[in-house]
Inverse folding.
């Protein structure tokens, strides 16, 4: 073998090794980037499931939305959707004239809700917050919508009992509250909606008419 050929062979082997090393780095970087992206996307969905009470995202059906709106007829004041998901209840209520607010733990769903509200032209009448429902006071709302699960309803019932005013209406979807007796019910199966007027559930008494003192004749 000539000296020139002997020098070419190691050079080619070195170049081939360099190319393989570059490809290895690219593959490693690609896999690492994919894992980071998956973590960023999945974390907001997985984290709620690790909490004591899991509130999964299950989109409201068209029938559920209509049943909620039916329970809001002749009502006014502010409205809050606890666990607002993709915002469809909040947006539907805003279209009916309510100043509507949604609280949701998943930031991706909150951002998507804001986009939907802007797309539907009701962003000025809606607000969406990234927050844990157990860390929020709902005392200033007069209409409360809840899409809950059985495990959370007793604790949420107690929280709302302590915070809300007597003239508040609470609308529960899919699962009723364990102790309160609903004032109105509509729908069937998973589309069932229960409405509770807190003045009845709490036993609030209406104020008696003011009696003017008798004047001497």
């Amino acid at each position: 073998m000539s000296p020139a050929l002997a020098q070419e062979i190691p050079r080619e082997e070195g170049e081939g090794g360099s190319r393989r090393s570059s490809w290895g780095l690219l593959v490693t970087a690609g896999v690492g980037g994919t894992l980071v992206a998956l973590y960023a996307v999945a974390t907001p969905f997985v984290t709620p499931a690790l909490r004591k009470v899991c509130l999964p995202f299950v989109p409201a059906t068209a029938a559920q939305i209509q049943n909620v709106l039916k329970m809001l007829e002749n009502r006014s004041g502010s409205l809050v959707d606890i666990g607002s998901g993709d915002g469809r209840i909040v947006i539907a209520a805003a279209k009916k004239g309510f100043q509507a607010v949604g609280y949701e733990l998943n930031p991706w769903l909150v951002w998507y809700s804001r986009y939907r509200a802007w797309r539907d032209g009701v962003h000025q009448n809606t607000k969406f917050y990234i927050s844990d429902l157990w860390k929020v006071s709902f005392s200033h709302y007069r209409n409360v919508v809840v899409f809950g699960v059985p495990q959370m309803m007793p604790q949420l019932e107690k929280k709302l009992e302590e915070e809300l005013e007597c003239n508040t209406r609470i609308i529960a979807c899919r699962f009723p509250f364990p102790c309160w007796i609903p004032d109105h019910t509509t729908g069937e199966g998973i589309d069932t909606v229960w409405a509770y007027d807190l003045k009845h559930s709490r036993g609030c008494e209406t104020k008696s008419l003011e009696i003017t003192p008798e004047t001497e004749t």
Observations:
- The beta strands are 79-82, 100-104, 126-130, 143-147, 169-173, 184-186, 193-197.
